[in-house]
Amino acid sequence: MKAELSDAAKNFWDVVISTATLVSVVVGGGFAGWQYLDAVKKDKIEHTLEYVTRYQQAPLYDQRQTVDSVWPAVVMQLGDELGRGTATEARSNQLYAAIVLSQFKPTTDRQKALSGLIDFYDQLATCVSEKLCDADTAKHHFGIDAKALLDNAYPFICAQRAFWHDRDFARPAAVFALGQGMDAACLPWTFGKPRS
Q1: 179-187: long-range contacts (C-beta < 8 A, 24 or more apart)?
Q2: Rounded to two decimals, what is the model's pTM?
Q3: Structure confidence at residue 140 as a pLDDT band (50, 70, 90)
Q4: Is there a smaller number of Cβ atoms within 10 Å at the N or the C end of the chain?
Q5: Where is 174: in which H helix or E strand?
Q6: pLDDT over 50 (residue 91)
């Protein structure tokens, strides 16, 4: 009977040791996985912060200044045009589009600056969609600026899409900033001019 007890005790301790080993392997693996995911998240955040640094330096800083200087003139000109009489929503949109396009004429420094900013946001959006950049960090640093730019510049974007027959011009940036590709906003556009 003493031998049976000894075998039972041995089996008990084998089970305890096996269970403890299994638990330590699972916990250790979980901890290693957590460390790996934490390192990946840190890498994504660091990569996103490289975009922040780029955004605050030339040439992007200068491009932002150039484009930002245009919007007050657009608002003033639109106010003047609308102040001359009552305009429908469609007419207001046509006026706005014409004013924006007149401010960002092809090959001007303003147009190059706007195109540079759109390219930047396309690159950032691609970095986020490919999971190389951290989406939360990108939205925190660029969400408001990107949305304002794309909301204001939609006539330019739609005109570029129509002129180049490229429905995907600025699409990554639009999806990042607005949550959609701006297709509905561009429907009335044909060959760079809004339809009546």
Answers
A1: 182/150, 182/154, 182/157, 182/158, 185/154, 185/158, 186/154, 186/157, 186/158, 186/161, 186/162
A2: 0.78
A3: very high
A4: N
A5: helix 171-178
A6: yes
